[in-house]
Amino acid sequence: MGYLLLGAAIAAEVGATTAMKYTDGFTRLGPSLLTVLGYVVSFALLAQTLKTVSVGSAYAIWSGAGTAAIATIGMVFLGEGMTVTKAAGIALIIVGVVVLNLGGAH
Length: 106
Prior knowledge:
106 residues
């Protein structure tokens, strides 16, 4: 159940960060409310996750998956270019999360 909550926390964080792109510096009410709500939901779900998943694993997965997802959304939907450096960075994030979990961050 902890990893299901973690997945939902990641989805909420990715949604909030994506909405932030459209806040225009927090001058647009709708996207600003979505951003705040998304982060509140994300942190609440992350806090619940920590009841059953170690903080090291949970935070590594939450931040790494969120970062990789946002970078991908930027490239696929927001016209941000793909470079070898960006691809390598995303790959390193994924490898880092896997290594932390294999290394006993449970």
